[in-house]
UniProtKB/TrEMBL annotation:
The lineage of its organism: Bacteria, Bacillati, Bacillota, Bacilli, Bacillales. Residues 179-277 form the HTH araC/xylS-type domain. SUPFAM superfamilies: Homeodomain-like, Regulatory protein AraC. It comes from Paenibacillus xanthanilyticus. This is AraC family transcriptional regulator. Pfam families: AraC_binding (PF02311), HTH_18 (PF12833). The keyword Disulfide bond does not apply.
Amino acid sequence: MSDLHYENSTGTFGVSYRKAKSHHMPASHFHGTYEVYCLLSGQREFFVQDRTIVMREGDIVIVAPHVLHRTTNAAMPEHERLIVNIHPSRAGMTERSLPDVLLPLAERAYLVVRLPLHERLSVDSLAAGIRQEIADRRPGFELYAMTLAQQLLIRCCRHIGQEATEPPAALSPMHERMSEIVRYLNDRYMDELSLQLVADRFFISPYYLSRFFKEATGFTFVEYVNSVRIKEAKRLLEGSSLKVGAIAKKVGFGSVTHFGRVFKEVTGYVPLHYRRGQPET
């Protein structure tokens, strides 16, 4: 089956399948849906929230809405993957009620799911069914694929509910150091955050920070800072009545013009697109 992509008109459900020799996500990535990333073959490095995870065949990572993440090549760049994006309301989650089995989705920014072989076979079947429905597009295909995605989430959450809750260990001391810096940036995005200032704060050289930050996260230092700031700005645009200029200042931009330019680079839209209540992409 060749690469395929589907997204409904409201942005609440989407499926993407790719088999590739190599691939780097070209931009930072966050959205208002859960992302279910199923690695069907190969290896990938998956940066999410504050750490990098090496994914292997059969691994699944589920990322909560509005959590910054990015994938890059690992030791085996050739890979096959399926991504399902599903809005909380379509995943069976509402503000008033949440099935107990899905509690792990609400409690964590991301889940790393590594299933035993006998469970993987069932999950592989669900993933294949989702791909086939999207490829064939017979009557009711979106609803059918969505029910399969819901079953996939339930199976993953059942497994997670039986596992320890500690985050994956750092890949190396360098990765742990970069995770510490990422956590600092996540907390202090509104402050001045030049490469030199942060390098001084952590008693390392700007060259070391620039080189290994990119290696550990897939982002350049500036890309990451901008993405964190824009993610928070988007949240404020959608959930507050603050003016654009006030939001720009609040998230750490010195000028509205620079804020507007970076906002469009990261999201593809001008800031007022989200103030007008347009659907998320």
